[in-house]
Specification:
This protein is mostly helical. It has two domains: 207 residues, Rossmann fold (3-Layer(aba) Sandwich), CATH 3.40.50; 79 residues, Tyrosyl-Transfer RNA Synthetase (Orthogonal Bundle), CATH 1.10.240.10. The protein is built from 13 helices and five strands. It has a three-stranded parallel β-sheet. Strands 4-5 form a two-stranded parallel sheet. Helix 1 links the parallel strand 1 and strand 2. The model has no long low-confidence stretch (mean pLDDT 96). The structure holds adenosine-5'-tetraphosphate. Adenosine-5'-tetraphosphate binds next to helix 1. The site of adenosine-5'-tetraphosphate (AQP) has 20 residues, from helix 1.
Amino acid sequence: MKSRVFSGVQPTGNIHIGNYLGALKNWVKIQYDYESIFCIVDLHAITLYQEPAELRSKIAELAALFIAAGIDPKHSSVVVQSSIAEHAELAWMLTCVTPLGWLERMTQFKAKSETQESIGDGLLQYPVLMAADILLYNAAIVPVGDDQAQHLELCRDIALRFNSLYGETFVMPKTSMPTVGARVMGLDDPTKKMSKSAQGSGHSVALLDPPDVIRKKIMRATTDSNPAVDFETMGSGVENLLSIFQAFSEWTPDQMRAHFSGMRYGDLKKQVAEMVAVSLGPIQQRYKEITSEPGYLNGILRESAERVRPMAQETVRMVKQRMGLYTIS
Ligand code: AQP
């Protein structure tokens, strides 16, 4: 039996090239090596308020984008998290074995709670729910961007703690990250990671941005006071543009140096914009086709849920039994 891969994206804001290069592109590449489950994590999204109609439409948009980006629904499951009740059920059981101090230390919790007037308990529990998502399917590999490394570490800690309290139950999941593109930075501020929730129209390139918008955003990207690319002294803005190009093109470091050394920033930006627009073109085309076929997406989400539900039910049955909870015989 193939081991499992699991990963997810929140249906919030506009999915951007950081999400694509950090996560989705890697999913597409490795999907056939595993039994693959890719999740639209809507229960994570509601840890911050989401307007209901907007959330509903973002769930469908994201599912279509997974498939448009190359996830093969005949092989891989595309699952909406809230359609499998066991995610929340396992999360509660794991909450009960997770020390509060572990959660309070999470940097994403600290960063996000600073931006809120009042914080829901869900925001603190976010990484426990993420651990439940992964452990529910006994996933061996979790392909994510660099910002999720700490949550993955916590997931392993929770699994270890559960195993030591109740006996060997969970597989220890490994993190898989791309060598280039694991942390794409904001175009307007290359000291901050590209993020869906960041304000400002020049911050990120969305997967559905038309070519002229992509060009405009990249031409306005922050660079530094050098006139041209110098691999020894370049600032983080230029480094970010080069790594976006490299992640899309899959060029080697030697190819990158040979091609870009000494290139003026205006030309560099034109070439990066072209690479991004050309790479996203086929994804945008497939997205149009998928969303114009009534019922197609719904059918995939239903079939996927039916495929993974027995796996989730089996894990919860085992966890309940290990913890001494009541199960109807
Ligand atoms: N800038 C990034 N570079 C590389 N990978 C990234 N990911 C996110 N931002 C970058 C990866 O995308 C996957 C899904 O992200 P998510 O929506 O679940 O979580 P997120 O980190 O909260 O995404 P955003 O865009 O930053 O949203 P907000 O603004 O809500 O915080 C994950 O694998 C993540 O690592």
